From TrEMBL:
Keyword field contains Chaperone: yes
Record-given protein name: Flagellar secretion chaperone FliS
Source taxon at top rank: Bacteria
Subcellular location field: Cytoplasm, Cytosol
Protein's organism: Tepidanaerobacter acetatoxydans (strain DSM 21804 / JCM 16047 / Re1)
GO CC, alphabetical: cytosol
InterPro entries named in the record: FliS, FliS_sf
One example of a Gene Ontology biological process annotation: bacterial-type flagellum assembly
Keywords tagged on the record: Bacterial flagellum biogenesis, Cell projection, Chaperone, Cilium, Cytoplasm, Flagellum
Main location: cytoplasm
Keyword Protein transport found: no
Family listed: Belongs to the FliS family.
Length: 126
């Protein structure tokens, strides 16, 4: 796949060469980015863009949910958390509620940070 845009090519290469652990962090970063954009869109009364960005965040949460390996006990807890986040995003989209987006962003940031710490510990123990 050849892109004329060097940035798009760089992003594509970054994703294709990333470890599974890094891909998870990238998903969280993407969801956080879209939640922030949606918050800005709502503040600016740009409802169409807010809907688009919240939907993108929902897509990422759905992807995180699909990636769970349910053979681990922790996966059931994560499934509940992702389900909650998805529901909050639906609610925020319907109500155009910035406060709900703040909660979602905070939880996503905590999950990303926790995942990052876990990855560091795994690397140290390897």
């Amino acid at each position: 796949m050849i892109n004329s845009n060097a940035y798009e090519q760089y992003r594509y290469n970054s994703i294709m060469s990333a470890s599974p652990e890094r891909l998870m962090i990238m998903l969280f970063e993407g969801a956080i980015k879209f939640v922030k954009l949606a918050r800005k869109n709502i503040a600016e009364d740009d409802i169409a863009s807010a809907n688009y960005n919240i939907s993108r965040a929902q897509d990422i949460i759905a992807e995180l949910e699909c990636s769970l390996d349910m053979s681990y006990d922790l996966s059931e807890n994560l499934m509940e958390i992702y389900g909650f986040l998805y529901g909050q995003l639906v609610d925020a989209n319907v109500k155009k509620d910035i406060n709900t987006l703040d909660i979602v962003e905070s939880m996503l940031s905590e999950l990303k940070d926790t995942w990052g710490e876990a990855c560091l510990k795994l690397k140290k123990n390897a």
